[in-house]
Amino acid sequence: MFGQQLRMRGALTRQCIVRLAAVLATVGGLGVYMALGSLLVAAKPHAVRPPPPGLGVETLSLPSRSGAALAAWLVIPDSPRATALVLHGMHADRATVLNRARFLRQLGFAVLLPDLQAHGESTGGRVTLGRLEALDAISCGEYLRWRFADLPMAAIGVSLGGAALSYAGGALPLKAAVLEAVYPTVAEAVENRVAMRAGPLAPILAPLLLLQLQPRLGVASQDLRPVDAIRDLAYAVFIVAGTADLHTTESQTRALFAAAREPKELWLVEGLERADAFALDARLRRALAREQSLEARIAPLLVLAWRPGVHRALGFTTREAWVRERLGMDATRARALVRLERACAESPPLARAWRTGALSWVEAAALVPLVSADPLGRFVPDWVRWAGWVTVRRLRDDLDHALTLAETDPQAFRRAGGLPVEAQRRAAGDDAPDAARSDREIRANHRDAQGEVREGGREEEALDGVERERETRADDRNVEGEAGEGGREEEALEGVDRETRAHHRDAQGESQWGGGGSSGGAEFGAAGRETGADHRNREEASDGLISHYGGVAARARAGLGGKPGPDETCWVRLLGSPAALRLFRTALCTVRRRIETVTGRLPTAGEALGAMLDHALAAWGEDAKVPARHRVFARDGWRCSVPGCSSMQNLHDHHVRFRSAGGSDAPENRVTLCAFHHLRGVHAGRLRCTGRAPDGLRRQLGIRPGAPPLLSYRSGDVRLLASAAPTSPHPAAPPLVS
Known about the structure:
about 750 residues; alpha/beta; Rossmann fold; 4-stranded antiparallel beta sheet; about 45% helix
């Protein structure tokens, strides 16, 4: 009996303990539940770090429709062209978006950065997940409209700030807005954040937290949906997010973008956790530097694997198949790396520049032919330094000239290595910049170390005097007498007969002509003279695929007052198929006969070739008639003028000084840009172009807040000396959003 009572008392005690534990657990759970709900909407007042000196910041206190007093900064440029409102994210403050203000200030925006209510140094009882914050945005917009009445307004909103902009709707007179990492609904935002901490319990805990919104904020979670509010926005929207962002997933960002009206644009940054474009820029630089270091380590191994038969021993029929399958590398790139590594074995300066990252593999590969042309390596270090100052496009043009000089004038090449004048000055320690030269001048004019002009096309100053030069040469021939002229005509007639017979032979053979230089039109320069030794040397150099046309270098001297020497000749090589060479010979003979009917004298082959080239230049060159709307395109070579860009499609005629800012339609205020660099570069504030076209332009690429541009170039694709060389030879593209 007594034992039974003890057992009953023990059972009652255990029940009481269990019930008490359950009550305590419930109370504790409710406490934690309420505490989490309180943290979700709790105010986050704190001191904000002061702005950096020199930014010109005004500190303001603005009354808001939400009832709060907003602490704010106003950043004003010297001549504001527009205004911008920048709103920070959840539990942040205005200092966290100051980098965007720097960026916008450089573009001429007056920027207002407030602390949203219950954040930073602003007053407020609780965070309302966008509802009261939307009233803050409206109040700030009213202040900007009052302070800068006639200027257009844009906005950037990060997370909570972007939600506030969407809730503000048409009450904000915006032209455009950037929404960074904005959640489509509060329910999804809360669930994502709970999942980051509680894992699989998120589907259970998140709804419990959302139940507290109604009693705490007076609004249900169903009413906090930016995805619904964004449908009513009547201005352009640019939505930015990272695909690896756990706060707002990629699918949620796409849903938000799908709900927005046109015009709109979406930018999903692959692998980025949060949408910070400057962090992306740093990541891309590190990735490129790492890739380049790996290529420098792979190249010596590629040389070993490139030996005959190695790929077959590895089970592949070709080297290209092995490279694609085992390395995942394009075969063209692999061959370039092999050539580069072999050249580096002969040129320590080139090897050092590539392996230390001073040059990219593309820049280093462009210098490979120079190693053979300069076996002693006297000029390779200077070329390596020059490659660091110019674009790859300009480097290749300069190298083409240098290699041509090494082949045609070895003595001039040995003096300066074919380096451009400015490169020679920098090699000598004189960093005074050359006068800016247009791309057209760079292609046309080459100067050797003594300053002698070697012209690949007509000098502009000679164009006006061509007719006078022709008349002068014609008079000189008349004064010299007709006897010598008749002798040359008889020699030329015999040459034409030989050429006509050669036309019917297979193009595997080769015909040689000595001839005269062309001055254009119906009159021609004096005929070049050729010795028997010269003729024998050219016959020995025949390879069956090249046709040589000789002529004096009078054309290079045209308009400069010089006359060719008696034995001075130049040669034009034509490489092509047998059918193409036969056709060219036929055309040349036809031109000679045609000129003979007009002038009464049979021209040499060189004179006929000059006439053909003059006709081509007149029809298609700079002298050709170009419609007024295309003259800027023709001047800039029908391609984008941005350094490094090779686009020849979707060209735009850009006004250097905007017409809205008083810019004229004069040619010196217009430049050719591709659609990307025009719309996404200049007008998006990531590229700045100033000066006079085409020779005096200055371009800044990768405009960054609080820092110099990534790159600065002048006309001619030459980097300005004031621009620090980037750490990576191929810097990342300018940020798409600040």
